[in-house]
Hints:
The chain is mostly helical. It has a domain at 1-26. 51% of the residues lie in helices and 0% in strands. The chain contains three helices and no strands. The protein has helices spanning 2-8, 14-23, 40-51. The longest helix is centred in the C-terminal third of the chain and has 12 residues, at 40-51. The radius of gyration is 21 Å and the shape is elongated.
Amino acid sequence: MDKIEELTGIKRSENRVREFFKSIGMAPRKVGMIPAKTDLDEQERFIKEELEPMPLP
């Protein structure tokens, strides 16, 4: 709603924006969850040893 108003100057209600998105084939999506327990050292190791050495296509 805010972005539409910022770009066009036209204020629309939440319901009107929802109906518009639905009419063009969009649907609401649930947000994914972020794991609560992460091993920062393991992530850092993976980035440096496995991800960065990979060649780009």
